[in-house]
Amino acid sequence: MLKESTTEEWLAFEWPGLYFYQMAVPAPAWAYGFAKYTKGLSQMVITHEKATSSLYVIRREYEEMGKEFFPKVKKDPASLYRALKETHQAALQIFKLGNKWNFDDFSALSDEELIARHKELFKWDAQLWQEGQVQNIIELHNSNLTEYIREMIAREFAKSDITDVFGVLSTGKYRSRLDKQDEDFVKLVKSCRLLKKNNKDFIKAIDKHWKKYTWMTYGWAGPAIAEKSFLENMLLARKNFQILDEIKKRHKKKKIALKKQRVLYKKLKGAEKKMAILFRDLLDSKAERVDAHSQTYFLAGKMNIEIAKRTNLSLNQVLTIPPFDVPEAFKKPKAEQLNKEWDYMLLWYEGKNSPKKYTGQAARNKFNYVKKRLPKIKAVNELKGELAYPGNVKGRVRLILNIKDAGKFKAGEVLVTRITDPSYVPIMKKAKAIITDIGGITSHAAIMSRELQRPCVVGTRIGTRILKTGDKVAINAEKGIIKKL
Amino acid sequence: MIYTKKFSQISKKSVREAGGKGASLGEMTQAKISVPPGFVVLAGTFDAFIKEADIIEDIQAELEKVNYKDTNSIDRASNAIRGIIKDTPVPDDINDAILKSYQDLGAKFVAVRSSATAEDSKTASWAGELETYLFVNKKNVVETVRTCWSSLFTPRAIFYRHEKKMLKTRVSVAVVVQKMVNSEVSGVAFTVHPVNQDKNQMIIEAGYGLGEAIVSGSITPDSYVIDKEDELILDVSIASQEKMMIIKGQTGGLKWAKVPKSQQEKQKLSGPKIMKLAELCAKIEKHYKHPQDIEWAEEGGQIYILQSRPITTL
User: Fold this and answer.
1) Which residues, 6+ apart, have CB-to-CB distance to A43 below 8 Å?
2) Which one, out of A153, A475, B133, B186, has a CA that is 20 to 30 A from the CA of B115?
3) What is the CATH number of the domain that holds B75?
4) Share of chain A above pLDDT 70, in %
5) Is B267–A336 a contact, with Cβ atoms under 8 angstroms apart?
6) Rg of the Cα trace of chain A?
7) What average pLDDT does this structure show over A400-423?
8) In degrees, to the nearest 5, what angle opens at C-alpha B166 toward C-alphas B164 and B168?
């Protein structure tokens, strides 16, 4: 461990709503996996407190990884593409499992079958998470690739076109579940136009649609979308043509952007072209990973309920068990230990060693070391982050630190949050603009804002600590600047 | 004549002979809800007592002397009548019947409560429904039953009956005698989440020792949230507990004791026990067809339901 006298700054990544059974899966990729591509991290700290998981690293080391890795990627993107391929394969396997199991009655499975399914799901989940982390070296907190793309645009294109070109280059080719749902929804509304609400075919069609898309905004902890909600949307869309028009408009805009993208690619040469395509492929990979996570946790949600029932552990206790420990917990549930871990737990990774685990006061004492080294936040009136989707808007802030408070969000407010996951989509749709603490151009918030075409600034780092509900802000998403008014 | 009946011989139709509380305990026993075992000294026993001891007229005479505009006068009559009842020996056959039932129960300490025979709750409150004596033992059980009988003549009860012009009406009272549970763990349960009012969620609170400490709010209990539909525990929230209320040795009464250090941070009820209790509480709710506020206690691995009341604030 570092000597107490060194006061190197650490970086904090906090994910409210991420349970430990989820955090435990990508953790090894950070602690050990990054070292396959770079010098890696000498130490890393993970904390878990109730439903918030956080990760802490030494800032210098983390930023150096980006600087070390990006030139390698530029020279030969193959190592990154290999990771993208593995991520994609894991996602496909998870979607397959979903098609097979989404509507199975898990309570009817024997213990052995349940554990076997759990193991199968988390085998792919581990691959999905771990291979999906590699791109973070250059795109989470670090933004080596984005900066490269920006500089390239500045070099190659007229100043007035910069925002537009960036928008075109960051348009994803991947068709997300939400996107597909929109398209199917338009078709469904049309095909059922003449059917009454209680018509058998109508009910059947809604049911089919619901089964296909119920999990699409599940995120880390759900809930899935109720069938009733699809029905309501549908009845609404029948009356209000604007809803379908907006979807069509969005699709059209995306189509045009993709067309422009192809033209731009033709103009670019060599490394620039390769990097521009890699940039889009990273975004697509992340978008697919987000969908696959929703599918994973939709299934895991059902499994966790069954595990809790059969072990007589509480659901929250089960959500604290790393997936690979589940078979053992089935045999010997350790409620007392899990209570402590649910309350507060700290894992200290150092080098290649397994992490040391602390709970309770010992964990808090350990954390003080990190806490002292986190950047102090100064009161400022201006925030800066990464442009995710352009726009110039003013509005009132609504701070959402926990998705359970989504009900408080009113249409037209500016969403300020640490990070988003698919369960935030309903309020993202209502938001005038979106501001996040964590994440770069490949973050969920960035991907979704482009899909929903909402002005969005990501990675402000301290947005949630500076802005409060009710604050009036002016957002210049082009420049990634938020001003408190 | 039958002076006492076990809970298992009583049902909700027994209000006249067993009183409201007695009938409810009988009802729960018959529904296989594990209330601590006990028996009821029937209302007829009280009637037999005043008849055999021939004190009806003495009581009536005291009541006639009362000036109802003067509270002191009501207090004086109450004292006099309760004095008469206290000084009147319980006839042998009644005495023996109560002691026999007590012996059959096989409990060291019992709780003795009056149980009003009127069917409406207002009448119940004047009849001293809440008159409760804890840690009663063999030596004073009969005497305590007699004290409960006299609860018919508290100043409040006398005044109420005057107001309702019921002084001449025959009134009676039953007495519930129930095993006192010397609980290792106890607590309360709400079959509907009291905060978010979610009907699919139940809250169980649990602490070491006797439930009095939780009910009075002097300790913070563990809190468990249960999903009723999925029949699973959603959350377990541990409260560290340093002291607990226990029964004071031979004499009865309550005292604080230290919780051993190794136990303080522990989950008070294990997962399987939480689910067993939740099942029981769901059964009670279903039985009464209304959300319930339940007091429970565990002694020697056996869970007892001490009380179940409808939640009226929903």
Assistant:
1) A1, A2, A57, A58, A348, A349, A350, A351
2) B186
3) 3.30.1490.20
4) 99
5) yes
6) 23
7) 91
8) 155
Note down the domain range covering B228: 185-310
The token pair that represents B187 in the structure block = 């607590």
Residue A420 forms contact with B (CB below 8 Å): no
CA-based nearest residue to B53, from B19, B17, B18, B94: B94
Q: How far apart are CA A134 and CA A144, in angstroms?
A: 13
Choose one of A348, A371, A394: the last residue of a domain: A371
Which residue is closest to A338 within chain B, CA to CA?
B236
Q: What is the pLDDT of residue A349?
A: 97
Reference B224, options A314, A211, A160; nearest CA is A314
**Which pair of tokens denotes residue A393?**
């808007």
- pLDDT recorded at residue A479: 84
Q: Is B267–A335 a contact, with Cβ atoms under 8 angstroms apart?
A: yes
Q: Which amino acid is at A355?
A: P
3-class DSSP state of B166: coil
* Structural domain range at position A315: 10-140+288-371
State which amino acid sits at residue B133: Y
* Rounded Cα–Cα distance for residues B215 and B205 (Å): 10
Min distance B267 CA to chain A CA atoms (Å)? 7
Please count the residues of chain A.
485
> For residue A349, what is the enclosing H or E element?
strand A345-350
Do B17 and B146 lie in a common domain? yes
Mean of the per-residue pLDDT values of chain A: 93
pLDDT at B167: 65
Q: What is the DSSP string of B257-305?
A: EEPPHHHHTS-SS-HHHHHHHHHHHHHHHHHHTS-EEEEEEEETTEEEE
For B20-30, letters b (16+ CB in 10 Å) and e give bbbbbbbbbbe
pLDDT for B123 equals 55
In whole angstroms, what is the distance from residue A308 CA to residue A301 CA?
A: 11
Tell me which residue has tokens 């004791």. Answer: B257
